[in-house]
Amino acid sequence: MGFTFHLMKTEKEAGARLGKIITARGEFETPAFIPVGSQATIKSMTSDDLIEIGVEIISNNSYHLYLRPGHRTIEQLGGLHRFMDWNRPILTDSGGYQIFSLGQLREISTDGVTFQSHIDGSRHFISPKIAIEIQRSLGADIIMCLDECIPYPVSYEYAQRSTALTTEWARQCKESLRGNGQALFGIVQGGTFEDLREKSARELRKIGFDGYAIGGLGVGESREVMCRMVSRTAPLLPQESPRYLMGLGKPEDLIDAVMGGVDLFDCVIPTRNARNGMLFTSSGKLVIKNARHATDERPVEEGCGCYTCRHHSRAYLRHLYMARETLALRLNTIHNLYYYVHLIKQLREAIRQDRLLDFCQKWQKKRKEKDDL
Amino acid sequence: MGFTFHLMKTEKEAGARLGKIITARGEFETPAFIPVGSQATIKSMTSDDLIEIGVEIISNNSYHLYLRPGHRTIEQLGGLHRFMDWNRPILTDSGGYQIFSLGQLREISTDGVTFQSHIDGSRHFISPKIAIEIQRSLGADIIMCLDECIPYPVSYEYAQRSTALTTEWARQCKESLRGNGQALFGIVQGGTFEDLREKSARELRKIGFDGYAIGGLGVGESREVMCRMVSRTAPLLPQESPRYLMGLGKPEDLIDAVMGGVDLFDCVIPTRNARNGMLFTSSGKLVIKNARHATDERPVEEGCGCYTCRHHSRAYLRHLYMARETLALRLNTIHNLYYYVHLIKQLREAIRQDRLLDFCQKWQKKRKEKDDL
Questions:
Q1: pTM, two decimal places
Q2: Same domain, yes or no: B252 and B278
């Protein structure tokens, strides 16, 4: 009933991998996209919506749930799966990213980090051990080590010190694990310095984790740097473990990272952009508020199998968006999540059938130069 | 394929009626509750959600749709049913109520009303003929005459003049009808003056409509006055036509009005209260934000068949509400609409089985004195 990763295939020309993750709450193939449920909900979605879309794993956020409603409350209510009525795998991040991006007045030491809540200003201390304890209470299938997400740009010295701290915290996280079936992933940091990334990966491998994440990217660096960091870091990670690129990215980023040998992705882009009226299609972005959609009877994408495209026109979606109706958030989110899940599914099929490069070339060609249709 | 009302039964002890309305887009039994879809959407609901709840007819708002996206746009897109993907009956109101409650700088004459849009301040003129024309473009199955909703309190003279105007407008609406299968309802006004209500009803009957609405209630008068107006007005309306109480009300108002012989209701209470975290149960109101629900694993109502109660605890709903998650709006709306639709269904069954008084007594008894559980 524990966590297992089967590497089923590595693509010949690129480094892309086809795998399968087995957890106590079901299995799913990789590459896989993980929609982000910060506060025990993928915004506007029920579990039934997610299942209809084809979502197989979701993430949740320890920082948010620790503050509200509290991990003890969720534990008392039978854990996160029961709390939010989601019976498939869940991944929780440690809260590190949010402590550093949302928390105020941070004080960092080898022991952990003290911060103020963004909700009410109350003071909190999280150590690696406490981060694991919170995630144990929540009961996710995959949990993450506490890390410091290094901002961009920073000096080599800052990145070096911070990466050493993340590695030390990873060691403490591993030691705090109770062996209750939760898979623990280590997080490679190192900023944009290749030697620090390499050192981080090497030391995490030595400690030994169920999976390895590439963290600290998509924080302001150029796309080129980001791609280089992914393509250099992924091969340093063990073949037999899943590789998880945290917090990224656009469809083209996912494709590049899959080619680079990454297995798991989580990102707020499909859901957040949906709420802002930006919809993904095979020919580029569609900005639903644009006047040209006002009388357009076509769905967002012809042939798309999502609920939104099967039932509603661009004209209706534009109307809902302009009238600030909450149904707009939901219908847009359904479409964008379906787009991501469907794209990743197509990538898996392409790897299975040895035609990934061909798929990627066709995918690029289909996109127009100008985004809004 | 036209509009038909069958009066199937009149309850012996009370004046309650069991009927059936047949339209080109399907039939449904009365008494029936009509959820309010102001802007071509019941806020946060898809059509599938509404069908699962058991909703058989919805309303839409001519004023809102005339201003945005425009009735011509909706007509061009195949009408309101197609625009919003709802294939069951729709009722549109004339916009009269919104012109008087939302519109600014109104000028009223026998010809119609000039007003400024609440969205952008633009000037508009709506005559009875234009109100019918807008509703013809929208293509609802049941449409309403333009009326002036009399505020409360007003002088007898104001109410008299206004009611005469509404009657004159009703006459013009009837004359503008093109006989395209849409059922037209007249609206009884008269404020809180029984003789004016009687005169209004008598004159509307003379003009002749497919159904008759009781308007201008729930605008500030006491519950006692409101009940008296309903119980005095309903018997003045033709037995063989449906009677529609506009804009009301709380569950107890619906029950009283059904006892008084009303067949149709629309009201924003279940949906608006849901968005404010107020949920209906058989034992009274439940305010979901209250701290006592924080660790309560029970559904909002034990045994309730709605999606929300089958899947989620009060603790989860409270968390979503406190975290301002949009899923809260949706799950709460599902529950409250189900409550209303289910209550009306129970009332129909009670009439069918000659036990309405008994049902109402038990229903009252079940409610606790103190509302929040």
A1: 0.97
A2: no
